[in-house]
Amino acid sequence: MACLMRTLKLVENLSKGNQLLIRQSTRTMAGWNKDYKPGVFPKTDEERAIAAKKYNLLPEEYKPYADNGLGYGDYPELPGGLGVEARDPYYPYDYPELKRNFGETIHADYDLYSEDRWSQPSQPRYSNSAYWLSFLGVMAGCFILFYWLEDYKMYRPVAAKQYPGEGRVHYTFEKE
């Protein structure tokens, strides 16, 4: 508690002598998460029109998420499923590293559709059943080969170990 009081006292002393510090700290508070929270779920047509204008959409295009307690509020339900890599790489975006334009409404699950995440911009080449059949075919082939070749063990060819015996000369150091 004493440390907290000393810190507050230090901040008070710094703020008396430096008004620029107070202004700068006030400016940095503008980007809090509370500023980006969605509003209350729109119930009337007027509220829907205001929310559509807030998200740069036409009132006909604006459809909010269902009010089921997940906290989306008035945020629009945008069609999803296409990731960022499906967008045109040669378009002059305002933020080219994100492939976005200023003021563009993004999906509520935008973190799932960024370029460093999985996305499926087009249909897979084969169906899931074809993938499963090829997987099971390869695995069955491996098991068949394993059991078929189980009886044919392969070893390194090695002669029998030679041990010296009584009365037998295996080596000599004499010249011939």
UniProtKB/TrEMBL annotation:
This protein's GO CC annotations: mitochondrion
TM regions (residue ranges): 130-149
Name recorded for this polypeptide: NADH dehydrogenase [ubiquinone] 1 beta subcomplex subunit 8, mitochondrial
Organism lineage: Eukaryota, Metazoa, Ecdysozoa, Arthropoda, Hexapoda
InterPro entries: NDUFB8
A Pfam family hit: NDUF_B8
UniProt keyword list: Membrane, Transmembrane, Transmembrane helix
